[in-house]
Amino acid sequence: MSARNRVSRRQFIKASSAVAGLAAAPLFIPSTVFGANERIQTGHIGVGGMGRGNLGKFMNNAVAVCDVDSKHAEKAAKMVRDKKGKCDVYGDYREVLDRKDIDAVVICTPDHWHAIPTIHACEAGKDVYCEKPLSLTINEGRKMVEAARANKSVVQTGSMQRSSKEFLRACELVRNGYIGKVHTVHVGLANANDPGVLPPNSKAPENLNYDFWLGPAKERPYNEKRVHYNFRFWWDYSGGQMTNWGAHHIDIAHWGLGKDDSGPLSVHAEMVEFHPEMAHEVPEACRITYDYGDGVKMIVGQGQKDIKMGTRFIGDKGEIYVNRGVFQPSSEEIGAIKLKDSDTKLYHSSNHQKDFLNCIVSREKPICDVEIGHRTATACHLGNISCRLQRKLEWDPVSEKITNDAEAAEMTTRAHRAPYVLG
Fold first, then answer.
1. H-run or E-run covering 137
2. How many domains does the chain have?
3. Which Pfam families match (predicted)?
4. The pairing of beta strand 266-273 with beta strand 393-396
5. 56, 102, 246, 335: most buried by Cβ count inside 10 Å?
């Protein structure tokens, strides 16, 4: 490791230093050879609850773990060591990217820490499995796609429902017209968590590098109800159940509708409820209508009695409701349909993580490629922007711009706290 990299890393962690942003000179020398290792080797960046869950699925490949919380890192390392005997531990993701023997990284950080390490991993010649939602903002998502394409990286988004048979079955029937022309899709989100009231701010625990945890987000005092699992419910770091569950169920709606490379033309949030006295900022309830301009409307509901968790496709000849482990057609006839040889067949994957590893070898796009993850996350972000402003938005999915509301358009990007910035 060069002295230049060591100094840059130290400066990066210490946000108070007067240093240049991450968009300055490249920090990594891209890998030039794949296949030097007998087995694909993965480094795991962010190993809290979700990160350790994914780690278990990459256990045969994992050689290093990284987390700004040393307790998380040590728990994850123990998982690997108990299985394989050896695992390296880091507190800075860039040390993982410096490793020439690591072929791919699995990123399971809070959402505000998805874009920077994904882009830098691509620049370092790595492939990336990034948890959903792909991004914190629409602008970040597009930059992640651009980095993947520019560096020819395989990037899988962790919207893993595409690798389950019930969702594949539902979407293939819908795509092939077996419920007729689809006019409405209901997407149900989980109800809001009950976080209680916000406790007083306190000192961050010694095991947590809190400044690095904040990273590109605004500098704020430490509060236990803003970190780890609870990051999901604060705008600085995430987008509530819209990005938490919308990144799954909207993803399936797009798959069934064939909207993986496009998006809605308008988004209108109504029946929005906020409870600022609670320890979160995001909506408690909402009903959001997405108009795709082709006769199809998607209605996303949180706390709506007529929209249950999951995805329901409604056509003029029938309906299909699908959720994890649940496939419910509106008739036995629809349920008994067998696809014809001439029917459209969708990408088949029975294991999301294995699909990623297979694509590292084949260099093909995975089942939930970065562009797909970006388009799904974009729909989620637009819904949240409409909720926050409680106004109807008009969206151009080609230019990826909100065309009718300057304030809303500004919310498609976010300022990053120096030195944790993107170019």
1. none
2. 1
3. GFO_IDH_MocA, GFO_IDH_MocA_C2
4. antiparallel
5. 246
Which CATH number is 311's domain given?
3.30.360.10
Inside any domain, residue 353: no
Q: At residue 280, what are phi and psi to the nearest 5 degrees?
A: -165, 165
What secondary structure letter does DSSP report for 334? H
Domain that holds residue 297: 164-206+238-345+371-410
**Cα–Cα nearest to 415, from 17, 123, 139, 13:** 139
Judged on CB neighbours under 10 Å (0-12, 13-18, 19+), 276 is exposed
Nearest to 127 by CA among 193, 16, 41: 41
d(CA 27, CA 124): 8
Cα 358 from Cα 162, distance rounded (Å): 16
What value, to the nearest 5°, has the Cα angle with vertex 110 and ends 109 and 111? 110
Total-model pTM: 0.92
User: Measured in whole angstroms, how far is the alpha carbon of residue 355 from the centre of its chain?
Assistant: 17
pLDDT digits (tens, 9 = 90+) for 208-263: 999 999 999 999 999 999 999 999 999 999 999 999 999 999 999 999 999 999 99
Q: What is the pLDDT of residues 77-113, one digit of tens each?
A: 999 999 999 999 999 999 999 999 999 999 999 999 9
Is residue 418 within 8 Å of 285, Cβ to Cβ? no
Task: Name the band, by pLDDT with cuts 50, 70 and 90, for residue 37.
Answer: very low
- Report whether 70 contacts 52 (CB < 8 A): no
Nearest-angstrom CA–CA distance, 304 and 320: 19
> Tell me, what amino acid is at 415?
A
User: Sign of the C-alpha dihedral, residues 149, 155, 160, 162?
Assistant: positive
In a domain, 159, yes or no: no
Note whether residue 130 is domain-resident.
no
Domain for residue 1, yes or no? no
Q: Which amino acid is at 85?
A: G
Q: Distance from first CA to last CA of the chain, Å, rounded?
A: 24
* Cβ–Cβ < 8 Å for 61, 40: yes
- DSSP characters for 24-41? SS---PPP--S-SSSS--
Q: Are 327 and 173 in contact (CB under 8 A)?
A: no
- The span from the CA of 130 to the CA of 158, in Å, is 6
pLDDT band at 423 (very low <50, low <70, confident <90, very high): low
